[in-house]
Design brief:
2 domains, three-stranded mixed β-sheet, two-stranded antiparallel ribbon, single chain, 12 helices, Penicillin binding protein transpeptidase fold, globular, mainly alpha
Length: 328
């Protein structure tokens, strides 16, 4: 990808120089139409070169979809990239231990869905278009990008096949691979791969490795508060995680824990009025600091929606942020 980006940058520079030369030659109006035609032809050639280069790249990363759908959780492109640059940056060793979805508690699954993609089970093509619209309008008001709207499926496609580079070419490839991923893998398999390969700290990939890195526990032993703390790491796991609890991390944790508590409450006494997949109104009270009164929290449908463990926290209160016993 880096080589392709360098080639493209060089081609653009050549085109700009050629454009400047041609404009310098256009000294009177009669020649300008001919110059415009030449520039258009070169622009089309450059575009075709760009498309062909991207198709070659996609062919190089094209996977065996049957193996991804039914085989062991694969090592992602992001994990391979980390291993390749770790020594040069003096980063810690890779910690990664994939486990099957049925071993990951529903509290952890639900916490990640609440934090990253509340409509995960309802999305048809791997995109959350209402979230994309809301994020676009919000970022437009702020004048810069504050929030993204990548779904769990998009992040899974990115982690599996693409590099950490940020450019419009990667976003286009991510969209294409997301659409294909949805049509080859079940929702449960996508969630399993995501939970086993998402980054939760420097060199820490997957919920099992993260649980052991931060608390010395298997993911099957985590409390609801610890599940919320892992989910709170996902937007920027290197800077915000259970071992580095900045203001953003604490705020995000409280929001996730509050929503989880409300979801469990909604599924018990008011289950008849808030069926799976519909919405439960957030009641007023102490929890409203993390979920304002009158707003709604989506109750995820599907396998994750079953089960409601005891939180160990009195109703209306928020558990303190679990402290990592293994500082990174």
């Amino acid at each position: 990808m880096a080589r392709a980006g360098n080639t493209l940058a060089h081609a653009i520079r050549v085109w700009v120089i050629y454009w400047q030369v041609m404009m310098a030659k256009a000294r009177h109006p009669g020649r300008r139409s001919a110059v415009s035609a030449v520039l258009l032809r070169w622009a089309l050639r450059l575009f075709l070169l760009f498309v062909v280069g991207d198709l070659v790249y996609l062919a190089s990363v094209w996977p065996d979809w049957q193996r991804i759908a039914h085989g062991p959780v694969p090592e992602t492109r992001f994990i391979r990239h980390y291993v390749s640059v770790r020594a040069a940056h003096h980063w810690p060793r890779l910690r990664w231990k994939p486990v099957p979805l049925w071993e990951i508690p529903k509290t952890v699954q639900r916490a990640v869905i609440v934090a990253e993609d509340s409509r995960f089970w309802q999305e048809k093509d791997g995109f959350d278009f209402p979230a994309i619209r809301d994020a676009f309008l919000y970022n437009l008001r702020k004048g810069h990008i504050v929030y993204g709207a990548s779904t769990i499926t998009q992040q899974t496609a990115k982690n599996l096949f693409l590099t950490p580079s940020r450019n419009f070419l990667r976003k286009g490839n991510e969209a294409l691979l997301t659409w294909i991923l949805v049509h080859h893998l079940s929702k449960s398999r996508i969630l399993e791969i995501y939970l086993d390969t998402a980054q939760f700290g420097r060199g820490i990939y997957g919920v099992e490795a993260a649980s052991r890195a931060y608390w010395g526990l298997s993911v099957t032993q985590l409390s609801l508060a610890q599940a919320a703390a892992l989910a709170a790491s996902l937007p920027s796991p290197v800077d915000n995680n259970p071992a580095h609890q900045g203001r953003f991390f604490v705020h995000h944790y409280r929001k996730i824990f509050g929503q989880l508590t409300l979801l469990y409450q909604a599924r018990q006494p008011v289950a008849a009025s808030a069926p799976s997949g519909q919405t439960a109104v957030v009641p007023a009270g102490p929890v409203a600091a993390s979920a304002p009164s009158g707003q709604t929290a989506v109750v995820p449908a599907g396998p994750v929606a079953a089960g409601a463990p005891a939180t160990g926290v009195p109703s209306g209160q928020t558990a303190p942020v679990p402290v990592s016993v293994h500082p990174q």
